[in-house]
Amino acid sequence: MNPISAGKTILPSNLGLPYKQPRLAHMAVRLKGNLWSKIRFPLAIATVLSSTWGPGLKASLTVSPAKIFVVLSAVFVLGWLFFERNKRIAFPRVFTWYVIFVLIHTAITYGFFYRNEISFDFISVATRADGAMLIDEGMGIKIVRLVLFVLFGYALSSVISNRKDILSLAVAYVFGFLVVILTGGHVTEGSSGLRYAGGFLDPNAFAFSAVNTFFLGFLLLISTSVNRFFRTVGYLAIMVALFALFRSGSRGGLVGLVAGITFLIIYIPNINKRLVLIYCFFGMIVVMFAATGFKPLEMILERMSGSRLEMDQGSGREDLWMSYSNKLKDYFIVGTGHGRSLDVIQSEGGRIGTTHNDYLGNLVQYGIVGFALFLYGLGALWRRLRRISQQYLLTAAVIKAWFIAWLVQASVLDTLSTRDAWIVLAVTAAAGKVLSNSHISVQGYGHWRSKNEKHLTR
Description:
- The chain is mainly α.
- It is built from 17 helices and 4 strands.
- The strands form 2 sheets. A two-stranded antiparallel ribbon has the order 1-2.
- The radius of gyration is 25 Å and the shape is globular.
């Protein structure tokens, strides 16, 4: 019978020909998926390792370290988008709503109203009174960076499966920060003297990385599931982080660190001997600073003094925030759009279009809806952390303290435009999911508990 007259589809198999293309295509997809499953976490490790490397290291290295993270994160995100079979979303749903709202808001802003302003050029470089260097970039670069960092955060949180993965990422971040310290990085001279700016040309960003290194080092320190070498790395990370924080002269970083440590002291019952060791190291760092000619402790105390705060008003932040509050009606409802804070006020205190406050920044750029979703999303992340199993009491305490330190720094810095903030968010979201009671009962990750955590939960 003629297959056409019978209404059948003509296939090579109906004509007696071999038909292997679907099977070959399926095998190719499986091969790519298997390859991706093998390289995805090493790629995540390499990306986190390079996350603190920026243009400030150019003077020390022959290649631009800033491009290493960009290339690795782009490859990581593309691999996750196209080859990850099970794209687990670790972030709470309401935080994802916030992200979707921001992306849609940005698409509408620049797709319909400011299309002609999209460019991919570096416009200018300015030096603030405190010595930090600010690079004013084209809006196209800012939008691409926003999308890349968001997808990187979601991809990173998706590949974290257990506590061992979190510790591995902590080791990578710490070693990456040690590279910044060993290679020198940018040093700037402000009104308070020499300040280390690390790889990002900004002492405040350098201090943010130092605070992250402190808590990740502490996470390694409390874990007995890693060997002595990595616990030693944890000790080293804490000392280096304190040194870097004081050398940056950042008041926001210091306040964030104090807030996180205070939470640890209150939250952990029967304060563990290792926490006492942390303060011993803190004292050692202070003694070391006092014995050197750098006098970083003197610099930070001078910057924290009441007379200095009254004189510079938080490096101009008070005047800046007052200017934004006086023009609340200009952005309260719909916002100005991503990267358009300068539309509300002109440059204040030598800054180029920044709010120096993530909460105010969300209100200015995305209006009351974006601001409310941001706060609601942060609350959902905190509730997720509270669900971490009691089996991981110390791990949960350190991650919560790390998250609190970021929340405090976000009140005086623009952190959401940095790589580090999305690492904090990704690890926080993943930890709240993979270390929860419900996930452990299904996946059976209880064997990663440290001996200290087992002791505290008996």
